[in-house]
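Q:
My hope is that you can spare some time for a protein that puzzles me. I hope you can help me see how the letters and the tokens relate. Thank you; the sequence and its tokens follow:
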Amino acid sequence: MSTPFEHADYKPLNVSYEAQHALLSSAHWANYIAKINVGLIVLFWLCMPFAQNNVFYELITDKDLLARGTYIFALLVLTAFYLYPNLKMLHYAKTIRTAIRDNDEQKLLKAFEAQKQIYRFFALLMALYVISLVAKFFYFL
């Protein structure tokens, strides 16, 4: 795949101190938010067995194995959907810090690739949400 810079003469990117500070600040916040979200996921799964007045408890004690398995599978899928962007944010934060510390352009590119994957993931979720809204709209017409 051809990039716009493949055939052009361009100078190496020099990142100023202010830009480095802004990148480190974004890495700090990405790291902070991702760790809180991963902690919430862990807390959710640790508290689920003890929540006795919810659907999860009723399904665990229910004899219907298909309903129980379906519910747990759905929770695992939702957990994966919630966990994926947070792991990418942690990867972005770690890689951007080491790229600036080592002055390594390849690590900087890897960090931006992780950021691009986060944006793609959220674009996919947004598209699914819009499709579901349109489907819901036409279903109720």
The chain is about 80% helix and 0% strand. The mean pLDDT is 82.
